[in-house]
Design a protein that fits this description.
Layout: H1 3-21, H2 25-28, H3 31-52, H4 65-102, H5 106-120
């Protein structure tokens, strides 16, 4: 009864993992990226182990439904932390760009804009 649901979840997790692996370098530079990818892989492996057993909640794996829920919520939390840290990183990048341009004196800004216009032509 539980196996088809676990298979569906495993299929979704595989697709999601592929999306995470294909994220850009900015994402991969975050410490949380590696932690989330590891949590995601561990969750997938755990589901795979449960699927190999006839009863996923048997004593051989010593994992209860509550522990499964805990692992699922932890993985979700790691993913949310990754997204939050990425958004904070974007905010810092935008602030750094804005402050660098604002700290330039007017002639330097004008030269930078002229240089940019030449590049665009």
């Amino acid at each position: 009864m539980v196996a088809p649901l676990l298979m569906d979840m495993l299929t979704v997790l595989r697709a999601h993992r592929q999306l995470v692996v294909n994220l850009g370098l900015a994402w991969r530079g975050l410490y949380e990226y590696a932690a989330y990818l590891q949590a995601l892989n561990n969750f997938r492996v755990l589901i795979g182990q449960w699927l190999l057993k006839s009863d996923p909640w048997d004593d051989l794996l010593a994992v209860t439904a509550e522990e499964f829920e805990l692992v699922a919520w932890r993985t979700l939390g790691d993913g949310m932390l990754l997204v939050d840290m990425y958004e904070q990183w974007l905010d810092r990048e935008e602030d750094a760009e804005g402050s660098a341009l604002a700290s330039l004196e007017e002639p330097q800004v004008a030269r930078a804009l002229q240089w940019w216009q030449k590049l665009r032509l």
